[in-house]
Amino acid sequence: MEAAKTHHAHYSFFHGVERNFDKAAKYTRFESGILEQIKACNSVYRMKYPVRIGDNIEVIEAYRVQHSHHKLPCKGGIRYSMDVNQDEVMALASLMTYKCAIVNVPFGGAKGGIKIDPKKYTPFELEKITRRYASELVKKNFIGPGIDVPAPDYGTGAREMSWIVDTYASLKPGEVDALACVTGKPVTQGGVRGRTEATGLGVYYGIRELCHIAEDMKKIGLTTGIEGKKVIIQGLGNVGYHAAKYFFDNGAIVVGLSEYEGGIYNEKGLDIYKVVEFRKATGSILNYEGATNFKNGADILEQECDILIPAALENVINGSNAIRIKAKIIGEAANGPLTPEADEILDRKGVIVVPDMYLNAGGVTVSYFEWLKNLSHVRFGRMDKRFSENQNTFLLKSVEDLTGKRVTDIEREQLLHGPDEVDLVYSGLEDTMISSYHEIRDAWMSHKGTVDMRTAAFTVAINKVGVSYEELGIFP
Ligand code: GLU
């Protein structure tokens, strides 16, 4: 992965997104001014601030980019990585706009980044870096429930979000909706159940929907269903790990996995739970029993499989390795894992690429649910869980009385169960991933195979954002 990156030192991620946008824009009806406005990053905030680390002062470089204000708040994660730069944050922010549009989440796109290697700092130091970042955002009005709502991304998680919400709340005393200033929080700090695994689960739901459709599977020589499909997953972070679990639990054969230290492959399948345990014990996935090692993790991408899930960083499949990809389906769990050159090569090979702006939108979808929960100040299910259970009990009793038969205990439990928060979150996520898939597929089919799925997804997104800009009106 690192090797692939240095190889393409001059690659502009933002320019890549623009190229993909332009490819799709010609299929839409909007005038060039509207298209230019959709494409542009509205606000770019670059900050430098000092943090004392040990005996030294370190100057921290950080960003927040708001790509689009066509709907507010803006939404998008915060990434901690040494690869953070303005071009990358701009690209990721723009993808957020299209992503939100595709899954009908009423937000504009944004992204943040801090150029640090989080592994090099203690939790105390990370807390100082994060809290100062949050207060810089407050100072410039770049954060708030109705302004811009960050979330986790590569290198961050619930812990960082809880520092951010605490900093925000203490700078805005009495703001009743303060919890809604950031999502991906721990459940005890206003988070919603199901957010952690949401992106990985969304990836699974999206690929499952693709694999449901016999007509599309036939074109790439596969049968329907997830069961028995060979899957390779690059990256075992929050997204890759959870995606791998859902594929494994639902009968897919996880043949390949990779992380920083390298990759492992076994055509008979790997038990994701055991691999993760093994990595915890030994510090590496390499030398896992029965598997072949790949010293360079990127090599795992080129191994035999049906479904390839890049779940790490951008630019991992590009003009130099795309030709060697053997998968029939690529599911972009990461943001921007394929360059436009890779798209062209893979399209010619007949590979179906399920684009990031749809496939990894489960995270922001459940972030939207969390934001709604925070603004409503009530847990999902609190009002209706017991009511549903009482209704179900009454209904089941009536059926049993009328038929003179009784259901089994397991059936009883399932029939009576009223929805908990996590049930509602999963159901909202599943419905979103399925209906958005069909919006994209309809656009894809309307072009009769002349465009790839990314272009179809872009047209869906551009149409929604374009209409929104038109209806906002352009000020004189
Ligand atoms: N960082 C995630 C993404 O790239 C989630 C963003 C959010 O929940 O706002 O989509």
As a percent range, the share of helical residues equals 40-55%
Strand and helix order: HHHEEEHEHEHHHEHEEHEEEHEHHHHHH
CATH topology descriptor of the largest domain: Rossmann fold
Which overall shape is indicated by the principal axes computed on the Cα atoms?
globular
What binds here, in terms of ligands, is: glutamic acid
Considering the protein shown, what is the CATH homologous superfamily of the largest domain?
A: NAD(P)-binding Rossmann-like Domain
Q: What separation lies between the terminal Cα atoms?
A: 48 Å
Query: How is the main sheet built?
Result: 7 strands, mixed
Structural class: alpha/beta
* Percent of sequence in beta strands: 5-15%
Low-confidence stretches: 1-7
CATH class of the largest domain: Alpha Beta
Number of strands: 12
**Count of discrete structural domains:** 2
Q: What's the Cα radius of gyration?
A: 23 Å
The number of helices is: 17
Strand order of the largest sheet: 9-8-7-6-10-11-12
- CATH architecture tag of the largest domain: 3-Layer(aba) Sandwich
